[in-house]
Design a protein that fits this description.
The protein is mostly helical. Helix content is 55%, strand content 0%. It has seven helices and no strands. The longest helix has 30 residues, at 102-131.
Length: 154
Amino acid sequence: MADVLARRACEDRGLPPPDAPLTLGPIPQADVASLGSIVAVTLAYSPAARTLLTHLEARQHIPETALREYYEHNRDRFLTVAALRAGTDPFGATKDADFLPYEHVKAGIEGELRQAAGRLAFFSWLDLARADVVYAHGYEHPGDPSHPDHEHRH
């Protein structure tokens, strides 16, 4: 069902339809936990969903202020190798030389924030797209509270 929705969304956006059939795609294990099971399975098996996610990520604009703010609030991520070896506390007394320059890490920060914003856009799209789906009797999701037998186990 999610693949059909993703194919329609790609078509609506003028994105080229994925040629690949439904196959297990590359979803890093670390990403599965942060994505949630429904989204992870959708992205793992639907080339259209992966195309849509890539499209949504590319359309995210991250303002310079957000990039700078991320850099300032996550200083522990930007310690130099020398500062790490010296055991520098990034939240204690530090020098500017203890940190990688903003200009050197800006592109990486932008990529991470764009990916996060793209995922949020994808989650929102999937929630809205599934809202109007009516399942045929007997094919309701077992965890759906609107289903009369939503507490059954498989």
